[in-house]
């Protein structure tokens, strides 16, 4: 299984600012995913990030708000732009595997004041 | 469209008792099914998965689940609960041909001494 790290693990930010979250994998993977988990809720897929192409966003999520980079096969970033308190969530990245399952990072806990 | 329903947002069991967490899905194509566990302030850990083959799948920590196509269910069980099983459990479904997950709303398991 892949080992995934995320930075930062948590942050407290002011409204109107932006935060970039990093996701690093210890092996090359085809697809990386970004999820949002709002307080007390389940996970919602934000976008799928493929290396060498633009990310594919799910309904309700736009590139201007959540720009994503995927410069190589082991790294991706998600930026939460122009934050508001409603963006307070846990943001998780995950990667695919040949077995069909996804492996998840530990998450970034974001609080927006 | 696929969907996942987890009955019971909160389940309490006594230590040593049977654990049963329910998951029903809808899918127009053969599904891949997954159970994940999330401990406080951590990411998601894969417990077990069903892709093809044997319908009774065994996972880590003594958990198992049975895929019942006729009932569109994938319930998670463990014969004897341990205090360390207290966590949030998520059921997820994906199409066999894609990596896109749909998550259930989660079930928080409480184990009573």
Account of the 3D structure:
The complex is a heterodimer of chains A (113) and B (113). Chain A is 0% helix and 52% strand. Chain A has 113 residues and is an all-beta fold. In chain A, the strands form two sheets. In chain A, strands 2, 4, 5, 6, 9, 10 and 11 form a seven-stranded mixed β-sheet that branches. Chain A has a four-stranded antiparallel β-sheet with strand order 1-3-8-7, with no helix packed on it. Chain B is globular, with a radius of gyration of 13 Å. Chain B is built from no helices and twelve strands. In chain B, strands 2, 5, 6, 10, 11 and 12 form a six-stranded mixed β-sheet that branches. By secondary structure, chain B is an all-beta fold. Classes of the chains: A mainly beta (113), B mainly beta (113). At the A-B interface, strand 5, strand 9 and strand 10 of A face strand 5 and strand 6 of B.
Summarize the structure.
The complex is a heterodimer of chains A (113) and B (113). With 113 residues, chain A is mainly beta.
Radius of gyration of chain A: 13 Å
Major sheet summary line of chain A: 7 strands, mixed
Number of helices of chain A: 0
Low-confidence stretches of chain A: none
Order of helices and strands of chain A: EEEEEEEEEEE
User: What structural class do you assign from the helix and strand content of chain A?
Assistant: mainly beta
What count of helical segments of chain B does DSSP give?
0
End-to-end distance of chain A: 36 Å
Q: Give the helix level of chain A as a range of percent.
A: under 10%
> So what's the overall shape of chain B?
globular
Structural class by helix and strand composition of chain B = mainly beta
